[in-house]
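Pipeline run #58 for the internal structure catalog. This entry was flagged by the ingest filter as a single-chain record with no existing model, so it goes straight to prediction. Upstream metadata was stripped on purpose; only the residue string is passed forward. Reviewer on rotation: M.T. Logging verbosity set to normal.
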Amino acid sequence: MKILAIRIKNLASLEGFTELNFQEEPLFSAGIYAITGPTGAGKSTILDALCLALYDNTPRYRNAESHVKIADITGNTINQNDARGILRDGTAEGSAEVDFVGIDGQHYRAQWSVRRARNRIDGNLQSSVISLTNLTTNTEIPGKKTELLTEIERLAGLNFEQFTRSVLLAQGDFTAFLKAGKDEKSSLLEKLTGTHVYSKISQKVYEMHSEQKQKLQNMSIQQQGITILTEEELSELLNEIKSFELQIGADELQLGKLSNAIHWYEQLNKFKEGLNLAKTIHEQSQNKSIEAEPRRKQLQKIFYVQSVRENVNEFDSVRENIEK
């Protein structure tokens, strides 16, 4: 993560709008710089604003007593560890805004803001609001407050505890990083320097080494069960293999012949079935012809009588014409 700009409005001792743009001179080309000034000038407020925009929390308010109440301008009280208490007295709204480069290389803007009811300086304090915008794509990222804080933490690559023990060391906490445990310090340094990828590579190499080592051990165990043949035994084994190969060739040839025989046998059965079916149909036709013989003879008689009747009718017609 790289901080690009910090903008502050009406927080603690910083009245109005204040901006620190690290992309512009003189800060842009400065290799190192210090935040100096008398007590109450707003030095700590700058660091508070940075933490508020990213984590909705600051070391100053985190370490405050939660059971201690402080009076608000409205006459109400808030907890001493309530970060909304950073709103400058006599103002109705305030905010902290940070532009930064995320671990994905894109630019983002995180904003923490708080206001009083009806935007009046005597209004009750409202809940703080968190927003997150992707400046690279110029889109606001949707989500609830907790979801946005989780996303900011992911993009920053550090949680609040890690951030305040490495990047930002509050007053009195300078030795916290030095006193951190070996594993915790290693994790912080990896995230700060971006060298965590080498830990992953190292872990992967170790896993591959362990896997190959296990394979080698398995092969060694298998090798111990292998008997080395003499020249004579090897020759006999090769002859047996050659004999088996010849036998396999002969068996395959015989199998081919048997396959052809089976094919012809199947064809013969099909022809026999066809012949039997034809015989059955022929017999059925003959039986039907015999059964129909009486009807055929009767029809012949009917046709004969019909022809005779037609001749008689014709004869009667001629006779009638003659008589007339």
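catalog note: DSSP finds nine helices and eight strands in the chain.
catalog note: The beta strands are 2-11, 14-21, 69-71, 77-79, 93-101, 107-115, 129-134, 139-140.
status: ready for reviewer M.T.
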